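$ ./design --mode recover --in tokens.txt
reading tokens...
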């Protein structure tokens, strides 16, 4: 049913500042959408828009057939309502009983990124992090209801984490929970983004020289991977930059 990501929409109180940071990160001017701005990447569009609170404005997923997706979700216990996204038909999912993340579905195809992306650019989404107090509820939403492929379910006591990876197109929705904490009905929360680049050292140099607050380049958790952190850039918290082979190895 779900063919991949369509958009991640980030809400920012300082919209101009967030757009300026995104221009540096992705090395492109972006497309104006009123007061918002859209940045076309290899596997989704990132939209920065105004919001009263910082963080995830909406997670927009793409489906092959919108009407059929609506029928399937209703039968799986998720009410949907017709909506509009940038002039195109969309479905808004009522997930109040399943974590209350803002999720939209669209059928509209993307135009894709501009050609000739330099190797020191952030060129695609690797994964989005969702923090949950109820991992089984999240698994029911992303796996049983949305039909995403569960590629990993692992508890690591040293990290105090249970991680569930759901494949969405060529990226991942990473659900993170604290296995030592009591399960609750509290809302899920946006936990950040991870971006792919072909050359993390070159990307780090470019972003540091542009004045962004970046950590040192370090070895990632997977052997052979190289990562660094963007401490303050886009709304919603730190972002991770990962070598582009990381997701391929994880698959």
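writing sequence...
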């Amino acid at each position: 049913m779900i063919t991949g990501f369509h958009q991640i929409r980030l809400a920012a109180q300082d919209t101009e500042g967030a757009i300026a940071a995104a221009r540096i990160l992705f090395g492109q001017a972006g497309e104006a959408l009123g007061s918002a701005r859209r940045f076309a990447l290899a596997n989704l569009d990132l939209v920065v828009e105004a919001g009263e609170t910082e963080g995830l404005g909406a997670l927009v997923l793409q489906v092959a057939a919108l009407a059929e997706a609506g029928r399937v979700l209703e039968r799986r216990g998720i009410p949907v309502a017709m909506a509009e996204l940038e002039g195109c038909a969309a479905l808004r999912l009522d997930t109040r009983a399943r974590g209350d993340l803002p999720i939209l579905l669209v059928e509209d195809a993307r135009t894709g990124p501009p050609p000739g992306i330099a190797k020191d650019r952030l060129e695609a989404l690797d994964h989005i992090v969702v923090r949950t107090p109820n991992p089984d509820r999240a698994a029911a939403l992303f796996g049983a209801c949305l039909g995403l492929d569960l590629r990993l379910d692992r508890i690591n006591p040293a990290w105090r984490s249970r991680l569930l990876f759901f494949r969405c197109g060529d990226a991942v929705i990473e659900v993170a929970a604290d296995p030592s904490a009591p399960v609750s009905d509290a809302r899920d929360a946006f936990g950040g983004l991870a971006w792919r680049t072909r050359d993390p050292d070159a990307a780090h140099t470019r972003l540091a020289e542009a004045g962004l607050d970046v950590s040192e380049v370090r070895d990632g958790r997977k052997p052979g991977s190289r990562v660094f952190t963007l401490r303050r850039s886009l709304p919603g918290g730190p972002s991770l930059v990962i070598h582009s082979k990381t997701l391929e190895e994880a698959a």
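exit 0
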